Amino acid sequence: MASKKEYSLEDLEARYYEITKLYDVAEEILATVESKLVSDADMQMEIIEPLVNEIGDATDVLAEEFMLIAENKKGKLTSKASKSHIEGALRKVFTAITDYQNRVNNVTKKAHGAILNIADPLVKKLRRQVEQVLVIFLEFINISLQAIMNKNELDSLKQRDARVALMMHQMSLAQQQ
């Protein structure tokens, strides 16, 4: 929900840092390839590389768009900030997470058993971080969560984070007026 609140430089820097934490999570996921718990590093790379690439690309866009927002009077929406770019970048990460899970499931089927990938806990961490980034952007602009994530993901997010449910409710009220 677009906010009329004035943000301090420290507030904006903290939010930017939360966005760029996605790079750190990507590096952690990439580091699983070198873990002694991984028996086939090439296969692990095949499983995680598309996810890591999407995280990097999306984070580049999100960081750039947030800078455009922050540069204009400490957080008020600028005409330069692109809602569609932000939604697209967030959607890419959520889709990449789903694709990662599908790749892990395919490997599990081939192995005839339930195998957890060493990156699974990090991918859960990634999902939570992306959700935090999504909330940051909701503070500044009206983005469409339905365009970003599927219904199950959205319902889960609303249950975990009451702020999201409240923001969505406020946006729907504003649209009705």
Biggest β-sheet, characterized?
Answer: none
Distance from N terminus to C terminus (CA atoms, Å) equals 15 Å
Topology order in helix (H) and strand (E) letters: HHHHHHH
So what's the oligomer here?
single chain
Structural classification:
mainly alpha
> Can you tell me the overall shape?
globular
Give the tally of structural domains.
1
* Alpha carbon gyration radius: 18 Å
Proportion of strand residues: under 5%
Low-confidence stretches: none
Count of distinct strands: 0
Helix content: over 70%
Rounded mean pLDDT score: 85
Put simply, the count of helices is 7
Notes on the protein architecture:
The protein has 7 helices and no strands. With 177 residues, it is an all-alpha fold. It has one domain (9-176). Helix 1 runs antiparallel to helix 4 (120-140), helix 3 runs antiparallel to helix 4 and helix 6 crosses helix 7. The longest helix has 31 residues, at 41-71. It is globular and about 55 Å long. The mean pLDDT is 85.
Task: Provide a brief overview of the structure.
With 177 residues, the protein is an all-alpha fold. 75% of the residues lie in helices and 0% in strands. The protein has one domain (9-176).
Question: How are the SSEs placed, and which strands pair?
Answer:
Layout lengths: L8 H23 L9 H31 L11 H29 L8 H21 L4 H4 L2 H10 L1 H15 L1
Overview features:
about 180 residues, mainly alpha, 7 helices
